[in-house]
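Chapter review: from sequence to fold.
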Amino acid sequence: MKKINPKLLDFIVDKLTNSIQNTISGDSFATEVLRLTKADLKQITKKNGWNFDWKAELSDNSKEVFKLTIPNNPNIIQGLLSISIESDHVYMHLLENAPFNIGQNKLYEGVSGNLVAHACKVSFQQGNNGFIAFTAKTKL
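The token string follows.
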């Protein structure tokens, strides 16, 4: 039998929270992950700076699409996640920060982490031990 050499990862998780942090004030805001609705699609367009076709994701019955919001401001979408539940893991098809949460001048940090954590939570709920998979999008 072939011997497997483990690969060690060298990183530190600085903190785990259920919040996002405002880059200007430093204030943290609790988040909630909700199902994306057809009504939400009006604000999620390429014209508004979104990169992916979220209408197509939402119309695909094999996928579940979620939005990350701040509880007291549920109409402002901070980020989006599209997943499917596989037999032994959750597959993340797409993850996107809102246009105002991208780049050097982003308004909130921690959006992607919250969405990945949600995918892990779904995986645990499905009995898949938190396993998730995705294919990195190197070009938009």
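Two observations follow directly from the output. The domain at 19-134 is CATH 3.40.630.30 (Aminopeptidase). The chain has two helices and eight strands.
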